[in-house]
Design goal:
Layout: E1 4-5, H1 7-15, H2 20-29, E2 31-35, E3 38-42, E4 64-68, E5 74-80, H3 84-89, E6 101-103, E7 110-112
């Protein structure tokens, strides 16, 4: 699957030591949840293929979440927090407070930004 990282997502991937092939693995095997105007792609333990060896580096991705724009080709941010799955499922259906936005180059829509104007 083709995807592009926002500047914010590229920074977070570098901080969390997540490579592009690991992001592709998350997109291929993760569970998708459409909520708050974005798509959450979450990798749960039961989503990891059974034929993957127990010490494979993809197994450390369990508990990771990618946040994608509506078209699904633009990664807004990523984080690794197993307990966030429940929180993401309980979010309101629509973003109620438009604060910062990142423009998606594919669907030309805007998606709620995770620190779009932050500087680390």
């Amino acid at each position: 699957m083709e995807f592009e990282l926002s500047d914010h997502a590229a920074r977070r991937a570098a901080q969390r030591n997540v490579s592009p092939d690991e992001i592709a693995f998350l997109l291929k095997h993760g569970r998708f949840l459409h909520n708050t105007g974005v798509i959450f792609c979450q990798l749960r333990r039961k989503d990891v293929p059974d034929d993957l060896p127990g010490n494979h580096r993809y197994r450390r991705l369990v508990g990771s979440t990618l946040v994608l724009c509506r078209c699904g080709h633009f990664v807004v941010t990523l984080y690794r927090e197993a307990k966030a799955f429940h929180h993401d499922n309980c979010k309101t259906r629509y973003n109620q407070k438009p604060e910062t936005y990142i423009s998606c180059p594919y669907c030309r829509g805007v998606v709620p930004g995770a620190g779009a104007q932050q500087s680390d």
